[in-house]
């Protein structure tokens, strides 16, 4: 099981020195990958509902100055040698398909094959409008088509594509990624996200705390994993073709002991209980697990990362 952590690109820890230090220290501690989030602009008037809070409000801590995701990953990859980087997640319709495929391939080449492409269809309509993307209402179809175009460009010597949103032929796309095809993890917890994962994903990458589609207990996550395997087979692929992953936003005392269905909340309670959660997820077949080590300072974040690695992960894995 691969273990990741979050590197903020906004807020007090989103400075070049703090980001670089988190990457270098996280690699030294022994984490496998780092997660970097994606917004290009922040609309001043947000009417869209944020999926991951009970109120639907976009968290104030996520607003303000913010670095562009792919540029930030390229910078951090240059500061490290082993650490992999996950776009967590890249909003696929935000950037033109061919340009995005090129940027991702370049990062993979320059980092020596250390890129994981986490993707999502997006939720912030006002940001789509500011970026001049295809219509927000068509974002699911756009995401599916862009993913297919990425793989065509990454893997074919003479790539060509004739879709509704993407068209190209007679182009040279080189160099190809170091990885034969950078793995694509599909973010989201809804039915469409599960179906996209089953059809097109190398991994399914949910956050457990979506109030509309909660996967905050072992029972709920296990049921969703079974549904994914069934959908993957129905899509004509092997049941395990899409790997299981999971993102932890909060853990320990920050998490209520019980979910609304009466089951114990995943990653709540003591270190011993969290160790058992990690073991249970590994037994379920989880390929990757990442944790958001929210902290007021870089020093605090690194201390928490080190403590979690020594007191939980070292005993669980």
Detailed description of the structure:
It is globular, with a radius of gyration of 19 Å. Helix 6 (191-200) packs across helix 7 (218-234). The chain is of the alpha/beta class. The protein has nine helices and eleven strands. The strands form two sheets. The protein has an eight-stranded parallel beta barrel, surrounded by five helices. A two-stranded antiparallel sheet has the order 6-7. Helix 7 (218-234) links the parallel strand 9 and strand 10. It has a single domain, classed as TIM Barrel, CATH 3.20.20.30.
Question: What topology does this entry show?
Answer:
Layout: E1 2-6, H1 16-29, E2 33-36, H2 69-77, E3 84-87, E4 90-91, H3 97-111, E5 115-120, H4 125-131, H5 139-155, E6 161-162, E7 167-168, E8 184-187, H6 191-200, E9 203-205, H7 218-234, E10 243-248, H8 271-284, E11 286-291, H9 298-316
